[in-house]
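User: structure tokens for this one?
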Amino acid sequence: MELVNTLFASLAGTDPFTGVDITIANCKSAYWDEGIVQQLINQALDEGEKFVGADGLEGLLRYNVTLNIGLTSSKVWPGFSLDTATISRLCACGADFGFDPYISDVPDVQCDLNTTNDVTVQFTAMLNPDERVIIAKRPLKKM
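Assistant:
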């Protein structure tokens, strides 16, 4: 486990009755390790289910929710995987998904890319205002 400055999963949306932006869940961790992002996402979705009650995750659809992951740290590789159950839960509530990492001193990690996959996720960063550089490239699912 690596100590981090900030790591959170925030589930936010818009109240369908008032139109006001609300935070439904904000789950935090002081550590980065394999599986922590998935754990925080599921914790936030659990709190979202409690928030809407008997309607379950589908009850969040009317709130137009977004689940954001925030990470500020140094010397950690900001990669993570989500299992199909977590992805299904995100889909059930119609959540937009955002990942906003701010990492200094990113460790050098070899990225293997299998081009037989039809979907690839790529992380980019801005070096200068007009220069975007690919920092990581991964297939969405393993073949």
